[in-house]
Amino acid sequence: MEVLFLLVERRGQLVTREEIVEKLWGKNVFLDTDNAINTAIRKIRQVLKDDPEQPRFIQTVTGRGYRFIGQTSEAVVSPAQAPAQEQPASSSPATTEAPTGIRTRWKLIVPAIVAVLALSFGGYFYLHRTPKLTDKDTIVLADFRNATGDSVFDGTLRQGLAVQLEQSPFLSLISDDRIQQVLRLMGKPADARLTPEIAREICERTASAAVLDGSIASLGSQYVLGLRAEDCRTGDVLAEELVQVVRKEDVLNALGQMASRFRSRVGESLITVEKHNTPLAEATTPSLEALKAYSAGWKASFSTGSAAAIPFLKRAIEIDPNFASAYAALGRMYGDIGESVLSARYTSKAYELRDRTSDQEKFFITLSYDLQVTGNLEKGQQTCALWVQAYPRAWEPHGLLSGDIYMARGKREESVEEGKIALSIDPDFSIGYANLAASYMALERLDEAENTLQRASERRLEIPDFFVLRYVIAFLKGDKGGTEREAALARERRGVDDWMSNSEGFVLAYSGHLEAARKMSRLAADLARKTERRDTEALYEADAAVREALFGNVSIARQRAVDALALSQSRDVAFGVGFALALSGDSSRSQELTENLSRRLPEDTRVQFTFAPTLRALLALNHSQPPKAVELLQTAIPYEGGSPSTGGSEFLLGASSLYPAYVRGLAYLAAHQGVEAAGEFQKIFDHRGIVASDPIGALAHLQLGRAYALAGDMTKAQSAYQDFLSLWKDADPDIPILKQAKAEYAKLQ
Fold first, then answer.
1. Partner of 278 for a Cys bridge, out of 283, 300, 728, 736, CB 3.0 to 4.6 A?
2. How far is it, in rounded angstroms, from Cα 716 to Cα 706?
3. Alpha-helix runs per DSSP H in 322-400
């Protein structure tokens, strides 16, 4: 455009190549100016449909330069009439201007040129403003070509550009998770460099609209940044820009400005560009080194797993202690591997620094804080609603509504719908399939749960959750071969072996094979210990403590509870330990844990409406106050049947939403109200997809028998006892509750 403006300004006169160089770049230039000028002239001719052999607009004077020979006419056009997006961007300290001052004359030249070219080009400039992308299109972001020799730019600039473009409610980037899946389908390694050619193939395979690739090169002591967007179907260039940057420290600022201009050039409204346009250094970090470590962390998480990302992200916050997004990412990674205490710690820090992020990242941090720190599911739902309103194309709020909020609140149908929306936006969102399958499982729609996991498998998606979900579905279907197959597969996968071992312990205990279950629980805890995941190890110990308490092994339950608490005092561990201690008669320590938990997490939905009421009800039973226990459990009723997202300590935390019903049943038994007790235990059978292999699923048969006996219905009582004894026909004979059941059943004969 600058070459064209110069030629038109001197219409009919020869403009030498030397004059073009000096006017546009100055005397001290290190570019390949011949190639730059040739490219500019070629593009002008392409637009004007001008034949260099028989020119109508641009005449070549061989060996010397060029002359504009087209007809022009004066046109009075005010700057306000000129399209806003065609006016030159304001300069910034990060970019250098041509020393000729030609840009200062654009305000005088542009109106006339636009008027002339609108006639000459057949309206090209106005067509150029037609949006090139729509709010349904997606973009593939290629790796930057780094010709500087400085490795600090490797991966860093792509990450920075992604952060800037993700501020847009209009644009949508193909996620790195999805790119990883497509690379596998292409037979490429997970860490393959996204060259323009590979990115273009990914673009075609994902039915995306464009590939955006960038470059950086040295220019003496300065740098040249380039961006180019290309339609991956036609090869047409949608937008491109080169910017010269004076200092290395200004590269991120310049990149952010280029991203903003790109957004408007491809069709986003200036209103949303201006509204969601936090400078890159503020949205992330002013440090290239910190951003590089952050980028390496995300790359490691996608190629190897969340645990592998943690060292890189810790390095990022060492370099820049105010890097909010790095703290948020650490919170997420620790949450992924079950370390809830560390997750809450880093998420809290991110929340403190949330004003140093982009608008979309603020939503993610706020929601993470709602879920990981305060546990306030109602606020979390409100945050999701605001996020969806501001960013209709974001899949994250739908995924979190499906997996973390609606499931926990017992809104299983809503969870299914949100899960479907998340996968429609990003069909390679791995955890989205786990959330949807878990939602179907909670609804006891097991075939649909299996089909969901099969769809994920067909896309070559595989995460630890899938193994455990398939294992539990097989258990619910009574498919022993299926459970054995999934358990064998999981043992070969690091990151799922401990979780599967704990799951096997639950299934073994469900049929009374307690000693074998203990071995699997110890194995699970040992595996977690080897990878230094204290919270996860503690959860496995808490699971075992609850099981022992339910089965009547008081001393073992207390010891396992103490062991768990020594490792972690996280919310879920505290609940499991408090439950085991209360059930095994240690009311003092259980009450202390309960009150501490309630004070520590006053906003936590699960604590205030499920965990604390359940523990207090057990304590009331220990003090022979069954009516009080029933009263305390009233607040839990709306949340019964809820289930948290998959992950962590098998499905104790899912079944925990039905622990109030189990304890209420015990309270009615203590009050000799058999009919009411039977109704509570029946709830457990009505929610098998949530209870899964939790011990209360097996023990509910026995408790139902006791309830019917109290109600005087001996036929149903005998049937319920028989169901329990049949389920435990091969159980370890020394389990206290089994001995009680046999003695009680004998009296019914």
1. 283
2. 10
3. 324-336, 340-352, 359-368, 377-390, 396-400
Residues 6 or more apart from 448 whose CB is under 8 A from it?
440
Which of 556, 498, 506, 555 has the alpha carbon at shortest distance from 532? Answer: 498
Paired strand residues for 212: 141, 229
- Torsion, Cα of 729, 734, 740, 743 (10° steps): 70
The residues near 389 (Cβ < 8 Å, ≥ 6 apart) are: none
Q: Are 220 and 30 in contact (CB under 8 A)?
A: yes
616 — phi, psi (to 5°)?
Answer: -65, -35
Pick from 452, 453, 446: which is nearest to 479 by CA? 446
**210-219 and 139-141 strand pairing:** parallel
**3, 139, 195, 225, 303 from 144: Cα distances, Å:** 27, 15, 8, 10, 19
- Tens of pLDDT, residue by residue over 401-445, are 998 899 888 899 999 999 999 999 999 899 999 999 999 999 999
Query: How many Cα atoms within 13 Å fall on the side-chain side of residue 156?
Result: 25
Measured distance CA(673)–CA(684) in Å, rounded? 18
CA 63 vs. chain centroid, Å, equals 59
What residues of the chain score a pLDDT lower than 50?
75-130, 645-653
Between the alpha carbon of residue 312 and those of residues 290, 304, 450, 668, the distances in Å are 9, 13, 36, 54
